[in-house]
Amino acid sequence: MLRLLSLELQKLLLNRTSKILIFISFILPFFVILLSSLKINVFGFFTLELGELGVFNFPIIWHLTTFFASQFKFFFAIVVVSMIGNEYSNKTIKQNLIDGLSKKEFILSKFYTIVFFSLISTVLICLISLCIGLYYSSYTEFSIVLKGTEFLVAYFVKLMGFFSLCLFFGMLAKRSAFALAFLFILFIIEWIVFGLLAWQFNANVAEKTQNFFPLKSMYKLIDQPFQRIAMSKFPDKSNLVYDYAAHGYEMIIVLCWTGLFIFLSYRLLKKRDL
After folding, report:
1. Would you kindly state where each structural domain of the chain is located, as residue ranges?
2. Where are the transmembrane segments (predicted)?
């Protein structure tokens, strides 16, 4: 595993564009820290400081930071599709196979890289959230700090699933631009199917079915936290209540998609004439 991971990291670090995109991918989450220190002047009447509103209290901070950080995953998605695009355009995929790397090892090297960067990003968000929370939170008891850390697991699974999908599209299209276009097409298809199901049955059936789709299931891992913040400020408003938890069955759905995308990527490579 380490040999395959090392081989892939060397390729990425030798590519200037990949290095820049990886750097951006890891720097962007730090904007969460800027968000925590943001002070908004409301028409000169008063200053609104987000940190003082309690939105960075434990355990809600785990939900907030992982949600915002997951919005930056597109930058590393470009790296993933570029990994495949460069292999085909530079003919290195054929050379690697000639040099003794099996097709299975080739796909595994990509997957190990995905897992590695997903893990690094998760650890980074964990440290950022912990630092902000310990600074701003009114609750620092160990049990409260640990509560909600399942969002970190959901964040890791979400990244791994999304990047595996990008890997599959990269293998399918062989070109970075086309692979990214497939992501947009899949998004459109999922909503078309949702519309057809809602028309044929009802919105409830359509929504439950859509939650099993690739992109939607990944999004559902970490729902938007704004309604939860409103709930904490207005506990008597029953209309604000919603299920914001990171559920294990949702992670299993995404892990199944992840396994399928890696398998399909391998099958494509195995059957393709290089």
Report:
1. 2-271
2. 20-40, 60-84, 111-136, 151-170, 177-199, 251-269
